[in-house]
Amino acid sequence: MTRLSTFDKALLNILQGDIPICSHPFAEMARRLGTDESTVLARLRELKSAGFLRRIGTFFDSNRLGYHGTLVALKVAPAELCAVAEAVNRYPGATHNYERECIYNLWFTLLTPSPEYESKILTEIRSLRGVEDMLKLKANKKYKINVQFKLQ
Amino acid sequence: MEILSEHDKEIIKALQEDFPLCEEPYKILAQRVGISEEEFLQRVRKLVAEKKIRKMGAVLRHREVGFNANALCAWQVAPDKLDATAQIMSNHAAVSHCYDRTPAPNWNYNLYTMIHAKTRDECEKFIDELSSLTGVTNYKILYTKKEWKKTGMKYFCESL
Question: Out of B86, B154, B158, whose CB is closest to A143?
Fold first, then answer.
């Protein structure tokens, strides 16, 4: 496992917050860190291939793009859990899917552009073999969405 | 809801792919859409100003950076205390997500927080803190047992 240096942590802290929106964003990041563009890019490629970065890119406000989200909990017969989890994974709108310690043992978030489309998907999932119950927990207000880990 | 132009959707589709790790990443994305880098940057800034983009950045794999105990905590909050409770919980550094949700029959939890900690003991200490700060005592801790999927959303790709 690659160990994170002080430089890495400073780099990742900037990268998590804001990639500059300009022609040479990594040069701008390098300037803030007191180094050069090629050093930043080389280290980011290493950290990415070592598995520290889940995703680098753009994070949208799904509501403002016309999508709405629901957290869905399934009670799945243990023997069918793997097959159901894989079936859920195949829907592009199912972005997070976790097995959890609860009688509702599979929890996923579903983003869809219309209630009709959501209902169609959830009807399909509810009818999968092994799905014994389903909770639909529609998101109302999002108070916090901030997946940033301050590295020290 | 204001309508996004087809042109904006093309830009969003380019942006939701992995961000190129090279000197001029926006130029590469602009080429995919078939516009100049300058126009692309202007469009991105507009999407940020309209708050359609929350951030340009990275998400770390939290287990790799040392967060091994991650739980969804579902809270049962009196409706008139929901807003104040959610504000207090959102201020806690260990909470990454805090949403209020319409509960389901037989599942009367209406506030949901994701909590990240290094160990289960630490996670439960944070949950105790949240409980005593807010006075909410009815909650359920749902530890992550296995991650089956975690991806960014791909917008405007449904086969409707």
Answer: B86
